[in-house]
Amino acid sequence: MQEHLGIEKLADATKAVAFGVLLYTIALLVSAAVSGWASDRLGRRKVFVGGSTALFAVGLVVLAHADTVTGFYVAEVVMGFAYGIYSAIDTALVVDVLPNADRPGKDLGVINIANALPQSLAPAISLFFLSVGSTHADNYELMCWAAGAVALVGALVVIPIKRVR
Question: What is the pLDDT averaged over residues 7-35?
C-alpha cells in the first residue's frame, strides 16, 4: 500500500488494508451463504467453482491496476465474493466425486495436500514475477496478472469433471 499507492503513513496503510480485509470478509460470507444455497437448489457445482475461480482472476486484474485505495477496495470485494462462492461449493464438488464415498479419509487428505501445496509455493513464485523488470522487486502488476492467469487455468480445469454438473 505504501509503495504502490503512495500512502505515506504506515498507520494509514494499515487502516486501509484492515478495512479491505473487512470488506473481503463480508463479501465472502454473503456469497458463501447465497451460493451454497443456490448450488444445492440448482444441483450444479462446476459452474459455481469454475465461475468463482474466473471471477477471482478478474479481481486480481482489478487489483493489478488499482491506483487508489478505492480501487483496492473494489478488488477486495470482487475477490472476497469470488472466494466465498469457491469455498462454499468446492468442498461439495470434491465430496461428490470421491472415488470411495464410504472411506473418504485418504481421499480428503490428498485433496487437503492439493489445496495446501500451491499456497506454500505461491510466495516463492511471486518473487520471480515481482522481480521481472524491476530492481526493487516491486512489479506488483505482473505478479497479480500471473496469479490471475493461474486462477483462470484453475477455472478451466473444472470443465472435464464428468461426475457432477
Answer: 95
Interatomic CA distance for residues 118 and 22, integer angstroms: 25
Supply the DSSP string of 78-105, one letter for each residue: HHHHHHHHHHHHHHHHHHHT-S-TTS-H
Q: How confident is the model at residue 66 (pLDDT cuts 50, 70, 90)?
A: very high
Mean pLDDT of 135-150: 87
The model's pTM is 0.83
Euclidean distance between CA atoms 59 and 77, whole angstroms:
8
Q: Would you mind telling me the total number of residues written for the chain in this entry? A: 165
Instruction: For residue 8, give the CATH number of its domain.
Output: 1.20.1250.20
The answer to whether residue 37 sits within a structural domain is: yes
- CA nearest neighbour of 83 among 137, 131, 31: 31
**Residue 165, in any domain of the structure:** no
User: What's the structural domain count of the chain?
Assistant: 1
73 found inside a domain: yes
- Per the domain annotation, does 11 fall within a domain? yes
